[in-house]
Design a protein that fits this description.
The chain is an alpha+beta fold. It has helices at residues 10-23, 26-38, 43-50, 54-66, 85-101, 106-113, and strands at 41-42, 70-75, 78-83. A three-stranded antiparallel sheet has the order 1-3-2. It is elongated, with a radius of gyration of 18 Å. The termini are far apart.
Length: 114
C-alpha cells in the first residue's frame, strides 16, 4: 500500500488565506458593498457615508487592495476605488466548489474555532 502525500504550495496557501481573511471581515464586506453601489468612489466618501474614521477606512481599503478585491484609479487629485468583480467571483466560486466537494458541518467548524 502506498502512502499519499499532500502537496501544499505555501505561496498559494498564503495568498488564498489573505483573500479569505479580507472577505471574512464584516466591515470590509460593508465597504465592498458601498463601493459596489457607487461603482467608483474615493476614500472620503466611504468614510463620511459609513461614519468611519479615515485611518480605519484606509487600513481596510489597503487590505482589500492587497488581496486584489478592489482596484484603484486616479481621477484628478482623487484615488477612486472600484470592486474587482472578476476576482471576487473567482474567489467565491473556488470556495463554493471546495465546500460542495468537501461538505463540512457548521457545528464541526465552530468546534475548530474554540
Amino acid at each position: 500500500m502506498s502512502k499519499q502525500h499532500a502537496q501544499i504550495d505555501a505561496a498559494k496557501l498564503d495568498v488564498s488565506s489573505e483573500i479569505l481573511r479580507a472577505l471574512a471581515h464584516p466591515l470590509r464586506l460593508q465597504i465592498i458593498e458601498f463601493i459596489d453601489t457607487n461603482k467608483s468612489v474615493n476614500v472620503n466618501k466611504i468614510y463620511n457615508t459609513l461614519k468611519l474614521e479615515q485611518s480605519i477606512t484606509s487600513q481596510h481599503l489597503r487590505i482589500l487592495r492587497t488581496a486584489g478585491l478592489v482596484t484603484t484609479r486616479r481621477e484628478g487629485k482623487f484615488i477612486l476605488y472600484e470592486v474587482n468583480y472578476n476576482y471576487i467571483d473567482n474567489s467565491v466560486r473556488a470556495v463554493d466548489t471546495f465546500l460542495t466537494n468537501n461538505p463540512v458541518e457548521i457545528d464541526d467548524m465552530e468546534l475548530m474555532a474554540d
